[in-house]
Design a protein that fits this description.
single chain; ABC-type sulfate transporter activity; five-stranded antiparallel beta sheet; Rossmann fold; OB fold (Dihydrolipoamide Acetyltransferase, E2P); six-stranded mixed beta sheet; 19 strands; P-loop_NTPase; transport; binds magnesium ion; 365 residues; alpha+beta; binds adenosine-5'-triphosphate; 2 domains; ABC_SmlMolc_Importer
């Protein structure tokens, strides 16, 4: 089932939460909605599910206007952000729920429901858990059951709102691979919400980056990493260094910057900001360099380096075995050579200061 959303808006108490969403999801596609907290991801899913109504806009599913359909007529499988299995029901009864509460006329006979539950338990690889209660399950097992409950009604569309949010990293990785298999085998159209970039890019055919009620960009991992559509996307993708530069014939110029690795941009001459990820900067030893190594710590694989010039600090992550690494002892002078970066013309007004190092997030490796 394909989904087409056009110019959708929604406000809560006068505060806009969706500000004109246009999105098409192809039949059988797995799309991830990625964005910071409060950007409107859950609200958009709820509107598709019929649990919330937009103020304006269209929601068309395979040629049918879904805004005219009640939630129960949409055949949606929904796994919620904060999973809620029925605690007083066994795993089997939880999975059977959506079928057993149907009105008598459309409810399958008991034996057929039981057979469907058996099939799902096997498909989800949780056959041994059928008689247990939710309290007797691990978080990962509960999420499998929650997905089983969503799949039991043979949904036309599967909506997953941070289904792995509460789980630890290793379990998330397992479930991610498993979910991709489940999706491929059921062929359902799936929208998956997360604010974990790695999860979004690994799982999805396409990633939709949302910020403050708008779609900022749609693309795959390389497109969004290499060509962020806005400063918001660049920051969200981990560009924590914002360097004021001057564009001259499409090339970024700034003291202590070697921009030779960056392609020329078709942008007007003048002030601009260069957005860089710490891992995309290679410091080059240079006795006359503007920047000085203030800190250099190894975690075994990566050197975390702070480069300083007066009050400005730039974080750099360099593989420990990179040829440049040996020269980067404390106090060494260097030039910045970015291997990749995004440039946006500076907004009118004062140039942005270089992002201070305090904002840098330590990432587990
Ligand atoms: N029923 C409601 N009444 C009032 N405000 C709401 C309601 N539901 C959501 N909001 C507000 O709408 C905005 C978007 O909420 P939403 O739940 O869609 O965000 P989200 O992207 O899913 O965030 P998170 O990643 O934290 O789950 C938030 O500012 C939220 O407080
Ligand atoms: Mg949410």
């Amino acid at each position: 089932m394909s989904i087409s959303i056009e110019n959708m808006t929604k406000s809560f108490g006068g505060t806009p939460v969706l500000r004109g969403i246009d999105l098409t999801v192809e039949s059988g596609e797995l799309v991830a909605l990625l964005g910071p907290s409060g950007s409107g991801k859950t609200t958009l899913l709820k509107i598709i599910a019929g649990l919330e109504w937009p103020d304006a806009g269209a929601l068309d599913v395979h040629g049918t206007d879904w805004l005219r359909l009640a939630a129960q007529d949409r055949r949606i499988g929904f796994v919620f952000q904060h999973y809620a299995l029925f605690p007083h029901m066994s795993v089997r009864d939880n999975i059977a729920f959506g079928l057993s509460v149907r009105p008598r006329a459309t409810r399958p006979p008991k034996a057929q429901i039981a057979a469907k539950v058996d099939e799902l338990l096997q498909f989800l690889q949780i056959t041994h858990l059928g008689e247990r209660y939710p309290v007797q399950l691990s978080g990962g097992q509960r999420q499998r059951v929650a997905l089983g409950r969503a799949l039991a009604i043979e949904p036309s569309i599967l909506l997953l709102d941070e289904p792995f949010g509460a789980l630890d990293a290793a379990v998330r990785r397992d479930l991610r691979a498993w979910l991709r298999d489940v999706h491929d085998q059921t062929g359902s159209t799936t929208i998956f919400v997360t604010h974990d970039q790695e999860e979004a890019f690994e799982l999805a055919d396409r990633v939709v980056v949302m910020g403050d009620g708008r779609i900022e960009q749609i693309g795959n991992a390389d497109q969004i990493h290499d060509h962020p559509a806005s400063p918001f996307v660049a920051r969200f993708m981990g560009a924590t260094v914002e360097l004021p530069v001057t564009l001259n014939a499409g090339r970024a110029e700034a003291p202590g910057l070697d921009a030779s690795r960056l392609p020329r941009r078709a942008l007007p001459d003048g002030p601009a900001t260069l957005f860089l990820r710490p891992a995309d900067i290679t410091p080059q030893a240079d006795p006359n360099g503007r920047w000085q190594v203030a800190r250099c710590d190894s975690n075994g694989a990566i050197l975390r380096i702070d480069l300083r010039d007066g009050d400005s600090t730039i974080p750099v992550d360099l593989p420990r075995r990179a040829p440049q690494a040996a020269a980067l002892t404390r106090g060494a002078r260097v030039t910045l050579r970015p291997e990749a970066g995004a440039i946006f013309p500076a907004p009118r007004g004062a140039p942005a200061p270089i992002t201070p190092v305090e904002h840098r997030k330590e990432k587990a490796i």
